[in-house]
C-alpha cells in the first residue's frame, strides 16, 4: 500500500495540463440527466464528491454527440447542442473548485442504442444484430435491434458529430479535455470488431481498415479543438460481449495501438475486466503492456479491477501512468484521501446500480 500511495499521489502532466495525482474516476453511465439530455443538480453533486475526495481527474460518463443515431440510453446526457453544453457548467465548476480536472467522454452508441429520442432505428457498420440483450439497469429490455448499415453520408455525419460535440464541450461547456469512446462495443468499437464489421469498402476488412474510423474521428476532433488533452478509450470486451478478444491477438494490438500513437493522441485509456491479466494467452502480456510496447510515447490510463493496490502496482509496472477506478470510486469517492491517510476502503455495494443505475440519494449523502 505504501508503494502504491507513493506512486499514485504524485503529479503528472497531460498535454501541458498538470493533474495533482495519478488517480482518475473512470467513465460510468448513470442515466441521470433530464429527458432532453441536460446535466442535473444531482449530477453536479455526484461528480463534485470525487474532486472533493482528492481525485486528480474525472472522466465524464459517455455523452452522445449528435441528434441522429448516437444516443444510447434514456436519460443519457448529451453534448449535441448548446443547451446541453451549458448544463455542464455547474458540474465542471464543482470539480475545478477542488483542483480536479474533468474530461468529456464522447460516445456514439451505434447498434447498442437502446433508448434514442431522435431515431427509432439503430445504425452500425453492418446490418448485424448485436449479441446479447439490452441492459435492464439502463432501461433496456429484450434483444438489441438489427441495425441498418451506415452509408458514407451516415459515417461522415457521425465523424462530424464527434468534432462538433468536442468543440462544444471545450468552448461552451468548459471541459478540460476530451476522451473519444472507442471501447466497450459502441460504434467505433463496432467498426474495429471483425464480426460486427462486414464491410468491403475502405472501412472494413483488415484491422488497418477497421481502425480507420477511429483515426478519422481523432483527426476531426483535433482539428476542432486544437491543442487540448485528447485521448481515446480502447477495450477488447464489450458490454454485450464481455469475453471478446481481438481475432489476431498481439498483431491486432500492434496495429491498433501503433495507429493511435501515430495519430497523435495525448493518452490511451486501456480498459479490461482485469487489467493486470494476460490479454490473449496464459503468461502473455497484458493489454496495458502491449499498449506501452506499441504506443511507446503515449500516456496510458489503465482501468479494470485495479482497486487492489497489488494489481494496480502491476499495471503501473507494465506501463500505466494513471489508474482509473470505477466501482472503487463509487464506494469511496474520497479514495485518494483515504489512501493518503491510510484509512480503510469501503466495499462496493452492487445495490447502488440497481434496479436502475441512476444516481441515488444514498450516494450523495456520503
Which helices and strands occur, and which strands form pairs?
Elements lengths: L1 H7 L3 E3 L2 E3 L3 E3 L15 H12 L4 E8 L17 H6 L1 H8 L4 E7 L15 E2 L23 E2 L2 H22 L3 E5 L5 H6 L14 H4 L1 H14 L4 E6 L14 H13 L4 E5 L15 H8 L4 E5 L5 H9 L4 E4 L1 H5 L3 H7 L19 H4 L2
Parallel strand pairs: 3-4, 3-12, 4-5, 5-8, 6-7, 8-9, 9-10, 10-11, 11-12
Antiparallel strand pairs: 1-2
Describe this structure in words.
- Helix content is about 35%, strand content about 15%.
- It has an 8-stranded parallel beta barrel, surrounded by 7 helices. Strands 1-2 form a two-stranded antiparallel ribbon.
- The longest helix has 22 residues, at about 150-175.
- It is α/β, with parallel strands linked by helices and about 375 residues long.
- α2 runs parallel beside α4, α5 (about 150-175) packs parallel to α8 and α9 (about 250-260) packs across α10.
- It has helices at about 1-10, 40-50, 80-85, 90-95, 150-175, 185-190, 205-210, 210-225, 250-260, 285-295, 310-315, 325-330, 335-340, 360-365, and strands at about 10-15, 15-20, 25, 55-65, 100-105, 125, 150, 175-180, 230-235, 265-270, 300-305, 320-325.
- It is globular and about 55 Å long.
- It starts with a helix and ends with a helix.
